[in-house]
Amino acid sequence: MSDGIEPGGYILKKCSLSNHDGSKTVSIGDMINTIEIEEDISKVCIQGFITITDAVNIIDNFPIIGEEILTLEVEDFYEEVVTYQFHVYAIDTLATNNTGTMQVYVLRIYSKDFIKSESVEISLAYRGKISESVKSIYDEHFISNKVIEIEETLGEQTFVVPNLTPIETILMMASKSFSDVYKSSNFVFFERKDKYFFGTHEKLFEDGQDTERKYFYSSVNSDIEDRAEQMNKIQAFSLNKRMNLLEEMRSGAAISRVIKLDLATKSYENLDYKHYERVKDYKHTDSITKDYHSEAFNQDFFGEDNITNDYLVFQDSTRQDQQSYQDIVSQRLSTSYYLNSIAMYIKIYGANNINVGDLIRFELQDLSSANDYTKNHATLSGLYMVSTIKSVYDGTRWDMTIGLLKDSLKGEGAE
Questions:
Q1: Among 61, 52, 58, 57, which Cα is nearest to 101's?
Q2: Cβ atoms within 10 A of the Cβ of 312, count?
């Protein structure tokens, strides 16, 4: 850790703009008021904005015309340095002072790969494993130097891509991917600071089980002298979502039906899916989880007579190169719903060692134990997956607001 950077501090080691061919570069670090960077699993690529006070009219003299690459290097409390490269795609919220000698404006920035992807349409047929097709698309169309981690998919398929961007194509393939290792087949695709990831949320759960990242929140106001421990103290938290029965019922997460139509034999088959009967087939944030509902409630509200969500799946029994969509649709929709069923936000000091897709251990004081400050909340404490990170750098302080997801409440006996 750094002796020169306090918890919540940072060093902006580099902030520069380069034109399209790299022939011209200008440092703008001393012009910056604030920087905001957002990472989000659901938005695929990293994006953000910076607010600039411009007294030398760099906006016209450089000029900034939507072709520029913004390079940021940020050092954190642990002396870890991360380099970002963004494409500047918009200028807005422009204002001037009374004499017209100074401008304040916002530069909107996006991952270079996203801008590149928006300039390309794919109209090709891909044959083979989806995971291999994803690797081919990434190698051809993504221009960053990041690696991509790809979880292997099962089955040989033929895809005809109907004029989609590379990112849209990979997202489409994610929705049709099948895993025989992680039964949810809930594939996601997103960018982190260090890499891209294409795989199931269950793999993220399994990979993160041994995490040593631990953050704690207590209602007790105590001064923490240890600087490293201050980095693990949650400044604020809000539980945005814990349960919504109506959403659960309307989404078909608990029970649904796939109607499999065989085009060759002109026949159909009803396949009913009950999540509460399959829940133990999946990896979860915690090793032991609580049931979503009682057995009696499941029988009364989530039985075969309560199915309101039907999904049509077309099959051709004479073909061998097709996907088992009947084993994907309900599982993916249900596990995706429950993955977002428990959500909270925490605010901590900024650090470069946290990425979306990571698991962290959240320790919350037991709200019913007013005098026992060492006892953790029985169900809400435990492992959470990081779904969003919003970093705000204001010149002297770096705060991170982190979105956390949990697919079920922790059961008795879980760590």
A1: 57
A2: 11
Q: Encode pLDDT of 124-138 as tens digits.
A: 999 999 999 999 999
Q: pLDDT at residue 261 above 80?
A: yes
Contact 27/16 with Cβ under 8 angstroms? yes
- Is residue 364 within 8 A of residue 380, CB to CB? The reply is yes
Amino acid at residue number 187: F
Cis amide bond preceding 63, omega within 30? yes
DSSP 348-372: EE--TT--TT-EEEEEEB-TT-TT-
pLDDT digits (tens, 9 = 90+) for 190-225: 999 999 999 999 999 999 998 888 998 865 455 566
Beta carbons within 10 angstroms of residue 115's beta carbon = 19
Q: Would you mind telling me the total number of residues written for the chain in this entry? A: 415
pTM of the predicted model as reported, rounded to 2 decimal places: 0.93
pLDDT band at residue 98 under the 50/70/90 scheme:
confident
- Cβ 85 vs Cβ 70: under 8 Å: yes
Partnered with residue 34 across adjacent β-strands are 51
* Pair 275, 284: CB distance under 8 Å: no
Distance of CA 17 to the CA centre of its chain: 27
Please classify residue 273 by burial: count the beta carbons closer than 10 Å to its beta carbon, then call 0-12 exposed, 13-18 middle and 19+ buried: buried
| Distances 372 to 220, 232, 366, 381 between C-alpha atoms, Å | 11, 20, 8, 15
For position 227, what pLDDT does the model report? Answer: 81
Q: What would the 3-class secondary structure string for 213-280 be?
A: CEEEECCCCCCCCCHHHHCCECCEEEEEECCCHHHHHHHCCCEEEEEEEECCCCEEEEEEEEHHHHHH
Provide mean pLDDT across the span 85-102. Answer: 90
| Distance of alpha carbon 205 from alpha carbon 359, whole angstroms | 7
Average pLDDT value over all residues in the chain: 91
d(CA 192, CA 207): 15
Q: What whole-number distance in Å separates Cα of residue 276 and Cα of residue 343?
A: 20
CA distances from 25 to 14, 28, 47, 62, 112 (A): 12, 10, 21, 9, 17
Cα gap 283→303, rounded to integer Å: 24
Q: Is 295 exposed, middle or buried (0-12, 13-18, 19+ CB in 10 A)?
A: exposed
